[in-house]
TrEMBL record:
One of its GO terms (molecular function) is unfolded protein binding. Residues 23-150 form the NADH:ubiquinone oxidoreductase intermediate-associated protein domain. SUPFAM superfamilies: Galactose-binding domain-like (SSF49785). InterPro entries: Galactose-bd-like_sf, NADH-UbQ_OxRdtase-assoc_prot30, NDUFAF1. It comes from Brenthis ino. Belongs to the CIA30 family. This is NADH:ubiquinone oxidoreductase intermediate-associated protein 30 domain-containing protein. GO terms for biological process: NADH dehydrogenase complex assembly. It comes from the Eukaryota. It holds the Pfam family CIA30.
């Protein structure tokens, strides 16, 4: 098992609660009429996750919505115009629960839109790990308003 720690980054306010030491991500999404908009955080680094098959998050959501996604990038291709590898999940409402995201189910996206490509995520060279609360521009479900995601831990297994 490898634990992955997230730091405070760009578009989202993150704080640690004491004595529980959990990360809490707060967002107030005010997307465009078509659903374009997000709030997110990411951690840059080098993660060799070969030998692992999935990410696990022990989390809960509170607020007006509970749709989130994990965003991974590899090989140092951490910014545009490069695509990311993403997987959506629903945070459990109010109670902590485990969410499992197999690496094989991460798909390529560019600015929230699914990309057709033959390349798969290279888990031996992950260089960015992030979490986003999405507005839903290319999704059937649109999200807006205040929400939180409380994370007890994230780990590779």
């Amino acid at each position: 098992m490898q634990l992955i720690y997230l730091r405070q980054m760009e578009n989202i306010y993150s704080t640690l609660q004491k004595p529980m030491i959990r990360a809490i991500f707060f967002a107030l999404l005010n997307p465009q009429p078509n659903g374009a908009g997000f709030a997110g955080t990411r951690s840059l680094g080098f993660y060799d996750l070969s030998g692992y098959t999935k990410l696990q998050l022990y989390c809960r959501g509170q607020g007006h919505f509970n749709g989130f996604k994990v965003v991974l990038r590899h090989k140092g291709l951490n910014d545009e115009p490069n695509y990311s590898f993403e997987q959506y999940f629903q945070a459990p409402k109010d109670e902590f629960a485990l969410r499992t995201l197999p690496f094989s189910e991460f798909k390529a996206y560019y600015r929230g839109k699914r990309v057709n490509n033959n390349e798969t995520l290279d888990i031996s060279q992950v260089t960015s790990i992030g979490i986003q609360m999405y507005g839903g521009v290319y999704q059937t479900i649109k999200q807006k308003g205040p929400a939180t995601l409380e994370l007890d831990w994230i780990r590779a297994e």
